[in-house]
# Entry
Amino acid sequence: MRRALLPTLVLLSFALAPLAAQRRTFERIRHYFDGSDALEIGLVGGPNRNTVTGAGPVDPKIRGLLGGYLSVPIAGGLRLRPEVLVSGKLVGFPNEILVPPCLPPGGCLPISGQETASFTWLEAPILLETRFHRALGGWGTPRIYGGPFVAVRLACSFSTPASAQPAPLNGTVPQLVQSCNAADGSSTRYNNGDAGFVIGGAISTGGIGLGFRWTRSLVPIAPDQSVLTGSRLIGAKNSTLAVTLEIGTRLR
# Structure
């Protein structure tokens, strides 16, 4: 009986060893994921650098975003993170040489000016966030997130050189700011909405986080139109990189 029982115990020990190893591996993974079930709320903001694709040569410009977020636990280290942001996006077009009408002829210098387009959006991203709890020890908790967003346009304007004025001695002219509807003589339509996706990450500790994100629009700023308007933003889409600072707190 003992001779029959001994091989059985040996085989059973070998069979249970992988299960114990798997259990240790599972516990280690759970250790690195933040399994906190706390509901969190906070503010997020920072500078962004915006450019557009499909508009030819452009000069990326810096503006910013500001808003709030709610972080809802789902399971383990997964969390749902809806946000509401006001995001400014600015883009410039390369310098052009302008020759204003001057009297007498030849009485002023050629001037250079840059046209810029400024948009302000109310964005609502719905992000899925994953946290790696204690992955950096006491340095903080890294996390990554991504998901879709939709947006509504709040404001839109163009800044163009006031080229009808005589050029001053320094060869530059003041800028003339107009709303989108009055920016060109034709009735260019600009979309009132936007949609796309957000990808980013951050490192946080003590309710304060520093991160980055990339926001990519899938909707053109101005759709293709039957009438040629000459707007460079027809078919162009926003692409924005941002550095973010977050300040959050637990609700429970």
Summary: The CA atoms of residues 92 and 116 lie 4 Å apart. The two ends are 59 Å apart (CA to CA). Confidence is low (pLDDT under 50) at residues 28-35. The helical segments are 2-32.
